[in-house]
Amino acid sequence: MLTAWRAGIPVIAWDGRTPRDPGFVQQLRQKQAEPSGNLARLREAVTELRLDAHTIGSAEGEHHLGQHVVLVWDDPTRPVEPLGRMTGPDDGVGGR
């Protein structure tokens, strides 16, 4: 993940299961169902996967991708924090 951040990649999705499912990317693409690369749709797809995982039985839900998909989304509108103590989203630069 650190390599992705250093490269300036604003969105990272990964499978938190061990071992990782080799079909992870395909499953995520199927749920996204939009080949346009619309990143807003990716966020919606992850939300839908998580909701799907909670609506099915506990035994099956434990193995459902929605229980394990992780999406990190870097907000491009959030100002970069100055050097020093890091703040939370309510304490950010300019008291946002």
Describe the secondary structure blueprint for this structure.
Blueprint: H1 2-6, E1 11-15, H2 24-32, H3 39-55, H4 58-61, E2 69-73
Structure description:
This protein is an alpha+beta fold and 96 residues long. A two-stranded antiparallel sheet has the order 1-2. Helix content is 36%, strand content 10%.
Contiguous runs where pLDDT drops below 50 for at least 5 residues: none
| Spatial strand sequence of the major β-sheet | 1-2
Overall average pLDDT? 78
Largest sheet: 2 strands, antiparallel
How many DSSP H or I helices? 4
Termini separation (Å)? 27 Å
Which class do the helix and strand fractions yield?
A: alpha+beta
Report the principal-axis shape: globular
The total of beta strands comes to: 2
The amount of helix comes to 25-40%
Q: C-alpha Rg, in Å?
A: 16 Å
Strand content: 5-15%
| Elements, N to C (H/E) | HEHHHE
